[in-house]
Amino acid sequence: MSNNNNASVVEIAQTAGQFSSSIVLQTENKYIDVKSILGLFTTLVSHKSYELHVHGSDAEEAKQAMIDVFTKHGLNVTVVAD
């Protein structure tokens, strides 16, 4: 795994940790808590696309922050409206 990918995993987890909302990344049949660095390390690769599920009191702010950080690192993410 490259240093760039390491940096993206850390930044994504740190950004998610700023919110009280539940933030879950879905890829294929896996669901990963975005606040879990270990879960991200085992799942996150730039050539996949991901769905992001965000629920909680600050969900709107969390969704925008997560879109921003995923985009910054060139990761394809779609926020799912539940």
UniProtKB/TrEMBL annotation:
<protein>
    <submittedName>
        <fullName>Phosphoryl transfer system HPr</fullName>
    </submittedName>
</protein>
<dbReference type="Pfam" id="PF00381">
    <property type="entry name" value="PTS-HPr"/>
</dbReference>
<feature type="domain" description="HPr">
    <location>
        <begin position="11"/>
        <end position="71"/>
    </location>
</feature>
<dbReference type="InterPro" id="IPR035895">
    <property type="entry name" value="HPr-like_sf"/>
</dbReference>
<dbReference type="InterPro" id="IPR000032">
    <property type="entry name" value="HPr-like"/>
</dbReference>
